[in-house]
Prior knowledge:
Blueprint (H helix, E strand, L loop, with lengths): L4 E2 L5 H9 L5 H12 L14 H10 E2 L5 E6 L5 E6 L5 E9 L2 E5 L3 E2 L17 E2 L2 H17 L32 E6 L9 H12 L11 E5 L3 H10 L4 E5 L5 H7 L8 H10 L8 E7 L7 H11 L4 E7 L13 H12 L5 E3 L13 H11 L1
Parallel strand pairs: 1-2, 6-9, 9-10, 10-11, 11-12, 12-13, 13-14
Antiparallel strand pairs: 3-4, 4-5, 5-6, 7-8
Amino acid sequence: xxxxxxxxNFTLPxxxxxxxxxxxxxxRALQVFKWIYQQDARGFEEMTNISKALRAELTETAFIxxxxxxxxxxxxxxxxxxxxxxxxxxxxxxxxxPIEGRNTLCISSQVGCAMACEFCLTGTFKLTRNLTTAEIxxxxxxxxRDLISNPPTTSADGGAGLVINDEGDDVEDECPDSxxxxxxIVLMGMGEPLHNLDNVIPAIQIMIDGNGLQLSNRRVTVSxxxxxxxxxxLGREIPNVNLAVSLNATTDELRNRIxxxxxxxxxxxxxxxxxxxxxxxxxxxxxxxxxxxxxxxSLDDAKRLLKLISDIPNKVNLIPFNEHEGCDFKxxxxxxxxxxxxxxxxxxxxxxxxxxxxxxISAACGQLKGKLEKKVAA
Length: 378
């Protein structure tokens, strides 16, 4: 029996080619695409402006996948953590963070991660497999569905520090978001997005397609630990997406130790790629900096950081380390955080220090997955 094709793995042009191969007109692809992403159709029988014959054919050759959360936890600050069972024994997480009434969704791109950063909980799961394009976009659609049926009752204040790229120049900012709207997508969940570009790029194309999920490219941010060739490819194929680089060290010596990727792409090479990344207008590269107590949180580190990024349009996202079981790193002191922040602010760097969010719901990436796996093992 021939295996059916998941239509959510297709961008609109790819869907046109798929249907063309079945002898269908290109406008049929647009109809199906809109039903999937704008009407959240879960079956072909819902597509009422498409002939019964075509619906019957599609039912024989294709399907529309969906994800349903296996677990949802909501924190007192409005943060929601979703665990999605992928149906093959594996699971990934997404986190919804309401910031001043605007929902930012952090999604995953892989099951586990191969980058082996010393401080990262997800890295302890190792890389199992890449997510498909469908599995990436289905996280967004599942959370949108949950927000419609269970609108937020708690609106968190600002200051979470996730990259949301509100530059203050968007007309749409004048209109308040509906409680069910997802304003920003950040690929900062489980996995290294640039290690899965063959599926991440089509997923982003679906996100920003006016006939798809209809997100502005200003609202999509891709985070990377520093895979330089893939940064070049991302900038070439989707030049207007926002870039966040997980830097976390100001010397090659330290970065080699805590982030093995640096041995392949050291700081000089990484920062050159950041400088050359095609960002339009006033947009900036965001440098994420996980502050490890007594390791990279000194004023000397702050001075070196400033020097490293001074010739790149930048903003800095300071992330105090979230201590977790099995890792020897410690959180920085409040004094160290404040001094680091102040040094950069005083030198006109745009800095956000991320608040601890979702602390009551295992909101750090990998914590909910790990907690449930322990329950199963017990």
